[in-house]
């Protein structure tokens, strides 16, 4: 690379970086990583080059874009893979049933697997414990929506509700892993995944 910014040269370099990152992050396509870098180069390449006037700075910026993209994608894959049994969509369904007040009518969606297997009453208890552990503001947001049917009106209220659901989902997943570790009986056909 030379000191003068040449978009074509940098796009070729970006392809090499993308392929390198794709080898390190299995399941992420190099073309997707490359696209992130290409957008940066086309939109801000000359500004970056002028501000830095060093090739090393541009290379570092491209590596940072690649790394951040890969980590974001990796997190999404982990969240929606078998390593997490509860998903926000399932938790929303369960919240509607939970706040209806009838523990016997509580039914766990098919994609929400549990240590309790088909014991919906035990799952209702798990939900109750997990909600009780949430901050009061999250509990209030969940109750407003799922007990009283009050939809959030402002962007801040919608964001608070979304955070409450995500935090509850995370709590249920963490409790499930902990329960499986403490469970004395066999867990047939399941693999316990513990974050390092």
Tell me about this structure:
The chain has 196 residues and is mainly alpha-helical. Helices cover 66% and strands 0% of the residues. The protein contains 7 helices and no strands. It has helices spanning 7-24, 30-52, 55-79, 88-98, 120-133, 136-146, 155-182. The radius of gyration is 23 Å and the shape is elongated. The two termini are 40 Å apart. Mean pLDDT is 76; it is low at 79-83 and 179-196.
Could you outline the blueprint of secondary structure elements for this entry?
Elements: H1 7-24, H2 30-52, H3 55-79, H4 88-98, H5 120-133, H6 136-146, H7 155-182
Distance between the termini: 40 Å
How many individual helices? Answer: 7
Rg calc: 23 Å
Residue-averaged pLDDT: 76
Helix content: 55-70%
Q: Looking at the structure, what is the overall shape?
A: elongated
SSE string: HHHHHHH
**Secondary structure: number of strands:** 0
Percent range for β-strand residues: under 5%
pLDDT under 50 segments (min length 5)?
79-83, 179-196
- The secondary-structure class comes to mainly alpha
